[in-house]
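Input record (Table S2, row 417):
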Amino acid sequence: MQKLVIHGGSKLHGEISISGAKNAALPVLCASLLTAEPFAIQNIPHLRDVTTMLALLEQIGVRILTNEPGTTELSAANITNPTASYDMVKTMRAAILVLGPLLARTGQAHISLPGGCAIGMRPVDQHIKGLQAMGAEINIEQGYILAQVGRLSGARIAMDVVTVTGTENLMMAATLASGTTILENAAREPEVIDLANCLIGMGAKIEGAGNDIIIIEGVDRLHGGSHVVMPDRIETGTFLTAVAACGGDVTLIGTRADTLDVVLGKLAEAGADIDIGGDWIRLCMQQRPQPVSLRTAPYPAFPTDMQAQFMALNSIAGGTSIMTETIFENRFMHVQELTRLNADIQVEGNTAIVHGIPQLDGASVMATDLRASACLIIAGLIAQGETIVDRIYHLDRGYEQIEQKLAQVGAHIKRIN
Ligand SMILES: CC(=O)N[C@H]1[C@@H](OP(=O)(O)OP(=O)(O)OC[C@H]2O[C@@H](n3ccc(=O)[nH]c3=O)[C@H](O)[C@@H]2O)O[C@H](CO)[C@@H](O)[C@@H]1O
Ligand SMILES: C=C(OP(=O)(O)O)C(=O)O
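Output record (phosphoenolpyruvate complex):
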C-alpha cells in the first residue's frame, strides 16, 4: 500500500496550478446522460473518482469518444443499462447523481442506496422525495432505488435540508420534465452554478442557480456541446492553508477567489497577507498563525470540506480555537491522528476545542477520508521530523498530483510503496 513520507519544517515558495474541481466534474459527467449528442468536457481533473465515474457511465452504455488529459468527450446515444450497482456507489457517493438524469432521459433507473460512509450518514431521502413529487414511482428493494416514470412533470419542491447532490440531481431531472420545476431551499454552492451553466449550454432553461430558489422550465431534449469545469476551490483552499501553516509565499494559478470568500477571510484572520487577481491568489505568511474559530455550514458559509485542513493550522496557532462541524456527524476522525503528532485537541459533540502548541512532532498516522488526508499532510509539513501518512488511497479520490504540487513549492514529501 502506498504511503507519503513528509519531512516537515520547510517554508513554501513558488507557484501551483489548480486543477478542475472534483465536485463539479462529477455532476457534469452525469449531465452527459441527458443528451443523445456528443458532449465534451474540459478541465477534468485526473482523479480516481473521475475514473470510477467514467467506468460507471460506460456500464450504463455511454461511449467514451475521447479521453485525453484535460478533455473527455462522451456519447450517451444508447443508454442500455440504467443501473448503478452498490460496488460503484459505495466507492464514490457521487454515483447517486446518475439517478435524476437516467430517470429523465429513459424513464427508469435502478440505483444502489449509498448508505453511510466514514464521515457520516449520507441519506438521499430528499432526492427521492423530489423525484416522487415530479411523478416518479419509486420503490426501495434490497438496498436499491427502483424508479420509473413515463415523463417527469415539473413540481414545486421544498427541500427540508440544504443538499448539494440533491439539488444537482433534481435540477438535472427537471431539465427534461414537462412544465416548470421550482426548487426551494436549494444549495447555493459554486458547483451547483457550474452544473447549471453546463446544462444551460446544452439548451436547458434554468434561472436562479446560486440562489436558494432555482426555476427550471423543462424542454423536450438537450443537445450536445462542451463545458469547461470550474477550478477546484477545495484544492485551492487546501494549498492556501498549507502555506498559512508552513509560512512562505505562494501564488495559486488558474483558480477563482470569488468562490472562497469565507475561507480567505479566515486565512487573513490567521495572519496571512492575501492578494487576488482575475485567476490567481497569492498568500504570504510571515508569522505564527493566530487561532481561527469557525462553524461549517452550507455555502456561502465555511465549507465542511475545509474543516480538517484548518484544524491542522489551528493546532500550531498562538491560542485556542473552537471548531464546529454541522454538516457531517463523524468528520473529526483526523483529531485522533493529529494527537499522535502531539496536537492538543478535545472533542465535545460536534465541536473541537483546539489549543495551539508551538510545534507538532512527526509520527506515523493513518488517513481516514479525503479531507482528513489533506489535514494530515499539512500537519506533516509543519511537524518537526518525519511523518508517514498511510492509507493515502483516499487522497487520490480528490487531489491531482498533490505531492508533486507541494514538492514544487519546496515541501519535502514523497510517495513510497
Ligand atoms: C451542504 C454541504 O455542505 N454539502 C456538502 C456535502 O455534499 P453532499 O451533496 O455529499 O451532501 P449533501 O449536501 O447532500 O448533505 C448535506 C446534509 O444534508 C443531509 N441530507 C442530504 C441529502 C438528503 O437527501 N437528506 C439529508 O438529510 C446530509 O446528511 C448532510 O447532513 O458533502 C460534500 C463532500 O464533503 C461537500 O462538498 C458539500 O459541501
Ligand atoms: C467527502 C467528499 O467527497 P464525497 O462526497 O464524494 O465523499 C469531499 O469532496 O470532501
